[in-house]
Amino acid sequence: MTPIRHGRSRSAVLASAMCALLVTGTVLTGCAEDPNEGTNGVGRLPAGRIQGKTRTAAESAGAVRVHGSVVSGEKTYALDMRLKGDGGEGSVTTEGTTFQLLRIGEQLFLKADAGFWSHGDGQGGKGDGDAASKLGGKFVKVPQGDPAYKKFSGFTDKGVLLDGLLTLHGTLATDGHAEQAGVRTIRITGDKGSGGALEVSLEGKPYPLRLERAGGAGTLTFSAWGEDFSLRKPERNETVDYGRQLPTS
Q1: 214: helix, coil or strand?
Q2: Parallel/antiparallel/unpaired status of strands 75-84 and 87-94
Q3: How far apart are CA 201 and CA 112, in angstroms?
Q4: Which of 60, 230, 246, 62 is nearest to 140 (CA)?
Q5: What is the pLDDT of residue 112?
Q6: What count of other Cβ atoms lies within 10 Å of the Cβ of residue 68?
Q7: CA-CA-CA-CA dihedral for 156, 158, 161, 164, to nearest 10
Q8: What DSSP string runs through 107-159?
Q9: How far apart are CA 114 and CA 223, in angstroms?
């Protein structure tokens, strides 16, 4: 007697056995194995419910890594961020310039080389050079009243960032099964892909694993769900408090 494999339902085994008994030299259709067998079951749900479950899973997770690109306005931002409830850290690259972001609670720090802090139009004066030399390579505290705080803190805020990303637009539908980093997924789309597409894990919790944003506005992958990490506040000699407003860069 063939033992039933772990995680496989009795009904699925019986269905496979029936298919085997019916095969008499002729290839039969209708006996393909259920792609959702042995999964968390969300692949059998309507697309709207899948989206709801994946948002719930994402919101309840303590931490996540977000990696990929986001197009906002006329700029493309390449992100590699680790986020959790009380802050985040990572790198952002745009227009050939890379800078690091670190937020612990309400304190936001930005670290970049001197070139980031220098005017790129060649019109900067001595004051610009002085500021660049002072700020380059340091964790610069971003004042909450500075426009840069609102602009960049969102990249370090798990709730804000995911809330803005994990929404597909238009009519939702499932679009087959796939695989992301070795994990089986169900793909859901908005307006047949023009409103975005999301791959949701069929293993364990239904976390979002890959997102294609609507209108070609970037592609992101999500990993390390629930894997905590530490946020270290920079030492005094690593930081600069420039005052109430940062220099224009």
Answers
A1: helix
A2: antiparallel
A3: 36
A4: 246
A5: 93
A6: 19
A7: -160
A8: EEEEE--HHHHS-TTS---HHHHHHHHHHTTSEEEPPTTSHHHHHHHGGG-HH
A9: 32
Check: CB of residue 128 under 8 Å from CB of residue 119. yes
Among 219, 213, 221, 222, residue whose Cα is nearest residue 191: 213
- Rounded Cα gap, residues 78 and 187, in angstroms: 23
Radius of gyration for the alpha carbons in the chain, expressed in angstroms and rounded: 24
pTM as predicted: 0.81
Q: Are 50 and 206 in contact (CB under 8 A)?
A: yes
Read off the pLDDT of residues 76-95 as tens digits, 9 standing for 90 and up: 999 999 999 999 999 999 98
Q: Across the chain, where does the E strand assignment appear? A: 63-72, 75-84, 87-94, 97-104, 107-111, 139-141, 172-180, 183-190, 197-201, 208-212, 219-223, 239-241
pLDDT at position 241 is: 86
Q: Which residues of the chain have pLDDT under 50?
A: 1-29, 120-127
Cα 40 from Cα 59, distance rounded (Å): 18
Closest CA to 229 of 99, 106, 84: 84
Dihedral sign (CA 215, 218, 222, 228): negative
Spatial CB neighbours of 226, under 8 Å, sequence gap ≥ 6: 61, 62, 63, 64
